[in-house]
Structure formats: C-alpha cells, structure tokens
Amino acid sequence: MNTEIFILNGYGQYVWPAFIFTFISCFSLYVKTRKEFRKQEKMFLKEFEQAKTIKTEIVQIKEARKKAFSGSPI
C-alpha cells in the first residue's frame, strides 16, 4: 500500500488531526441538533395533538379509497 497518500508529502501530521477534529465537531453538532429537534417535536405534538389528527385523516383517506375501488355503485 502506498503510504504517501496518508503522509501527504509531510503535511499529514497537520491535515489528519484537523480532519478528525472537523468530523467530530460536525457529528457532535448533528447529534445535539437532532436531540433538540426531537424534544421540540414532542412538545409540539403534545401541545397541539397533531398525531391523532393525522391518524384520523389517514384512516378517512383509506376508507374513501376502499369505497371508490370497491365497485359498488353507492
């Protein structure tokens, strides 16, 4: 295996730690943001009870589709 790819002409000792630091920083920011989003989403759904409304609408749509495709004239 060619180690020149990892050494980067002598600059690898500076590049790889910077790359690792950047990756870890971005990943931790992603995890923190995802956690905060889920927390806010739960608060929103609890306050407005959107989950029940969405389920009701989906059931109504499915029932309408069954009636439309059942073949009965009514």
Please outline the helices and strands.
Elements: H1 4-7, H2 12-48, H3 50-69
Could you please describe the fold and organization of this structure?
- By secondary structure, the protein is an all-alpha fold.
- It has one domain.
- Helices cover 82% and strands 0% of the residues.
- The protein contains three helices and no strands.
- It has helices at residues 4-7, 12-48, 50-69.
- The longest helix is centred in the middle third of the chain and has 37 residues, at 12-48.
- The N and C termini lie far apart (73 Å).
| Helical content (DSSP H or I, runs of 4+) | over 70%
Write down the secondary-structure element order.
HHH
Mean pLDDT: 84
Q: Nearest-angstrom radius of gyration?
A: 27 Å
Estimated structural class: mainly alpha
What percentage of the residues does DSSP assign to strands (E)? under 5%
Number of structural units classed as domains: 1
Oligomer: single chain
Would you identify the regions where 5 or more consecutive residues have pLDDT less than 50? none
Main sheet characteristics: none
The termini sit apart by 73 Å
Helices, by number, come to 3
Count of strand segments: 0
Spatial shape: elongated
